[in-house]
Structures are given as structure tokens and as C-alpha cells.
Design brief:
Blueprint lengths: L6 H4 L2 H5 L6 H4 L32 H11 L6 E5 H13 L6 E4 L6 H8 L3 E4 L10 H7 L4 E7 L11 H10 L3 E5 L21 E6 L11 E5 L2 H10 L7 H10 L3 H22 L5 E4 L6 E6 L2 H10 L5 E2 L9 E5 L3 H12 L4
Parallel strand pairs: 2-3, 2-4, 4-5, 5-6
Antiparallel strand pairs: 1-7, 6-7, 8-9, 9-11, 10-11
Helix pairs in contact: 5-6, 11-13
Length: 352
């Protein structure tokens, strides 16, 4: 790769000098019969499970199981309190407030902008093209000496389409900062994950989640995949026990059920295609963006009125009609077959 990437040049000076907090579980590793080093309650918990001990700060068991499933070495995995923590740490590690900037490519996931604002980091918006692909010239022109991160969501939220792989590779090869590819919806796509490219691109960070296909949104477990050096930065900054023991235990159990998840994915994709076909038969539906996610972006006449109509029946979709480049659109998550049938019944009843 021609890109002269140097991680040390990107890090904030205070992070380079940071001495991370050293917890009791960091200082002692191994088995012991009497643990009186961490000021824990020695009697247990007022629950059926004992949660009186602090959890593994680096979640070794969970990472080992994820490593087998994802085909990524455990040393290249960071686990966060949702993908939001993984995003926030990137800002805190690499972006000096009031000095550095990042590039966003709207319409896209809103937390990139919120996290920038929280961290007092400027952001430049380079809108996607009319077909929701990267504006490579626009991105190139927006990059300056203080641009540290570029966020690319693929499959993209709220549009559902995948970003062309060769375009993402072009950005990776020509940008000396970090390229963050958010693959929250990758399980629903036939496109290959960028996790398989970590060795080729030292400036690549891939985000994934257990909130979507794995059905664990309530547990808040996000994943970042990157080089060992970037993962070391993550672990340096994160709170000492950022993933609680209950979450680790439940996730370990859930990860035994890959077949169940794969069945759900297949059914979701099948239902997505059925939903698209039937929605396109409605006179007021104008266009549906081809989707690689578990949702579809539907352009229609009077979207707000349709939204309000569905609310009357307890059916909640997402109104995206005020989002730039998504004018006139509702975002509809693919439900169960029964939920999708009810949705279509109500939409067919609208007096066009």
C-alpha cells in the first residue's frame, strides 16, 4: 500500500502520555482461593447468580468465541458498550477538540455527528451521491491536515444499500487517517466484511454489533476490529470494567446459537424481498432503495400522513422524510411474517 500510515502521528499528545488505570484484575491474573484485593463484597450477591466480583476487564472468553465465529484473532477485537463507545473512544483518542476534524457522508448514522459535538470536534459533511454512493472527489477535497477520521456506514443507515467496495478501498489507500467502516447490518448482506482486510489496511477500523442480527440490542455489546496497535489504544482509554459480567455471561451463551441466528437472517432477507415486492404494488409508493440490511427505505407520497396513519394502529416505522437525500421516505424495519402482513394490510387500506 502506498499510504504512508503512521498511527503515532494521529494520536493526541495526552493519549500518548496517558498511564491507564490499573485495576485489581489487571494486576493479578490467574486462579486464587481468597480474593481480598479489590474491596468486593465477600459474601456474594442478593441474586441467584454471584455478581460480587469484578468482571474480566478484557473479556477474554467472549473474544475467543467471537474470534472463532468472525475469523478474526482475539487480539484484533475490542468490545464496547454498544458501537457508540467504540465511536466515542476514536474521537477521544485521535481528535484534539477545537483543532481536528472528521468527515461524515450523509445521510448516515446520526451518532457520528452527535459524538463529534460531544467531543467538540468539527465535522465536514460530504453528501452521498444521488444513488447513495461515496463522492470520492468531494471527500478528497474535504481532507486537510487536521482530518483524522472518515466514517462510512455500509450497509448504510438509513438507506440500506452497501457502499461500493472499490470506493472504500480508494479511501483507505489515499487517506492517512483512520477509515471507520460501520458494518452494523453486514449479517443481512451478501457483501464480504472488511474484517478480512485488517492485515492489508493498518488505518482500517471495522465496527459491528450484536444488536441487530443477533437480537441482543438490550445487552449493548458493540465490536471494533482493527490492528493490534489500534486495539491497544482502545484498551488504554476504555473504563476498566466497561462490559459487565452479566452481559459477558449472556453473550457467551448466545454465541452458541449461530444456527438459530443464521435461520433468522435467512428469514429476514426472504421477508425483506417479499415486503419490497408488495410495497411496490401500492400506487403511492414511488421507489424503494435496494437494501442489504434488515430495513428498507421507501419513498412515497405524503410520508408523514402515512406515518401518522400507521401510528393509529400501533405500527411504528421511522419517518426519515426530513433527512437530506431521504425526502419523502419512511424507513421500515423488516418484521416477522405476521407483523409484515399486518403492515401491508393497513397500507393497502389507505384511501389513495
Amino acid at each position: 500500500m502506498d499510504n504512508p500510515f503512521n498511527l503515532n502521528n494521529l494520536l493526541r499528545e495526552n493519549i500518548k502520555k496517558l498511564v491507564p488505570y490499573s485495576s485489581a484484575r489487571d494486576e493479578f491474573k490467574g486462579e486464587a482461593s481468597i480474593l481480598i484485593d479489590a474491596n468486593e463484597n465477600p459474601f456474594g450477591s442478593p441474586l441467584n447468580h454471584d455478581y460480587n466480583r469484578y468482571p474480566d476487564p478484557l473479556q477474554h472468553q467472549v473474544k475467543a468465541k467471537l474470534s472463532n465465529i468472525k475469523g478474526v484473532p482475539a487480539e484484533n477485537i475490542f468490545l464496547g458498550n454498544g458501537s457508540d463507545e467504540a465511536i466515542d473512544i476514536l474521537y477521544r483518542a485521535f481528535c484534539t477538540p477545537g483543532v481536528d476534524n472528521v468527515i461524515l457522508v450523509p445521510p448516515t448514522y446520526g451518532m457520528y455527528e452527535v459524538s463529534a459535538n460531544i467531543n467538540d470536534v468539527a465535522f465536514k459533511k460530504v453528501n452521498l451521491t444521488a444513488d447513495y454512493q461515496l463522492d470520492l472527489d468531494g471527500i478528497a477535497n474535504a481532507i486537510d491536515a487536521h482530518t483524522k477520521l472518515i466514517f462510512i456506514c455500509s450497509p448504510n443507515n438509513p438507506t440500506g444499500n452497501s457502499i461500493r467496495r472499490q470506493d472504500i478501498e480508494t479511501v483507505l489507500n489515499n487517506f492517512q487517517g483512520l477509515v471507520v467502516v460501520d458494518e452494523a447490518y453486514i449479517n443481512f448482506s451478501a457483501v464480504k466484511s472488511f474484517t478480512q482486510e485488517l492485515a492489508e489496511y493498518p488505518n482500517l477500523v471495522v465496527l459491528q454489533t450484536l444488536s441487530k442480527a443477533w437480537g441482543l440490542a438490550a445487552l449493548r455489546l458493540g465490536m471494533a476490529f482493527a490492528s493490534k496497535e489500534i486495539i491497544a489504544v482502545y484498551n488504554k482509554i476504555k473504563p476498566p470494567y466497561n462490559i459487565n459480567q452479566a452481559t459477558q455471561d449472556i453473550v457467551l451463551e448466545a454465541l452458541n446459537n449461530v444456527d438459530q441466528v443464521n435461520d433468522w437472517i435467512k428469514e429476514t432477507v426472504s421477508e425483506r424481498e417479499k415486503l419490497v415486492r408488495e410495497l411496490l404494488e401500492l400506487d403511492y409508493v414511488q421507489y424503494i432503495t435496494p437494501s442489504d440490511a434488515n430495513f428498507i427505505l421507501v419513498k412515497m407520497e405524503q410520508p408523514r400522513e402515512v406515518y401518522d396513519y400507521l401510528v393509529q394502529y400501533g405500527i411504528i416505522v421511522r419517518d426519515r422524510s426530513k433527512v437530506e437525500l431521504c425526502e419523502g421516505c419512511l424507513r421500515i424495519t423488516v418484521g416477522t411474517p405476521a407483523e409484515n402482513r399486518t403492515l401491508l394490510e393497513k397500507l393497502n387500506q389507505i384511501n389513495k
